[in-house]
Design goal:
There is one protein chain. 44% of the residues are buried. The chain is built from 6 helices and 11 strands. The chain starts with a helix and ends with a helix. The strands form 3 sheets. Strands 1-3-2-4-5-6 form a 6-stranded mixed β-sheet, sandwiched between helices. It is globular.
Length: 345
Amino acid sequence: MQKTIIILIVHSLLFSYTQAQNGTQNQKPVVTAPLMSGPAPDYSDLNCWAASPYKEDTSDKIPEFLKNEARSQRADVFFIHPTSYFGEKKGSPWTADLRDTAVNNNTDNLSIRLQTSVFNGSCRVFAPRYRQGNMEAFYVFNSPEAKAAFDLAYNDVKKAFRYYLKHDNKKRPIIIASHSQGTLHAIRLLQEFFDGKPLQKRLVCAYIVGYQIKKDAFKKLPVGEQPNQIGCFVGWRTYAMGEIPKGAAAENGNSVCVNPLTWTTSGEWASSELHQGIMNNFETIVPHTVSTGIEPSTKILWVDTKVNPEGKKGKMTNYHRWDYNLFWMNIRQNVKDRIDAYLAK
């Protein structure tokens, strides 16, 4: 019962966060609070990694129906997890303390287990813990306090990536993956390390999901237009068919979206026949239950499905939490396909 209550609270906070992203909440007043609540990470310490091939963690989880799957580790994925720090108490620091076990458990049991694990069929998985920005910072996104928090979080991510490059990569193919706040930081990481840089040649694909990707985000890094394209990026934000969030409408179409059923930017509706299955608590939901299309004016991803993954009554409109899970099997297969294409080039 207690676990159910905690999960429901997290779901509610995630919904509030996505509402803030989409401009449906008023800006809250900036409150005085410390920027940091703990020491900087030392990425030579495995405790500073939510997922690493050098320890057992929740990214290693494999659903029962894939127990006989042929797996390999032909590439590496560097995954930047979404917000799991919801410090709403008055005076809560702007960034998370890496020693906070409640925050770390949220990260590990939700994002790392249910999202990052999609890559373990083909990749070694690296996912750093970082002093992520408080969810409240999204409500005052343009304030100096929020900017400082997100800059601090990004600098931790950058530090982790540099450590990974120096000690672990050894010229292996790289996948960058992220969700939500993680994508805010992943875009900066791609701009700094990959976009028109030599490292772009080592990029299989960037799966940067659950956040606006502006049309001019990258100068040389192309959007993925084909399922086996490499050295590119893909991303989407998922809503029920017919839903247009205020925040997305205010972007005036300045966004990029790739349909994860076709892996193209085509405006044609994708049939549920292309849908390979949903990941929900490591139990299968029958394939062919989701069809998708890119809404032309906002470039968000619309889904049509009778499945309610939250298990609640009523129609869902915002599938932010399920950006990965709705398409878990499609993503897993696409990762393999793109690695095949990269190694065959």
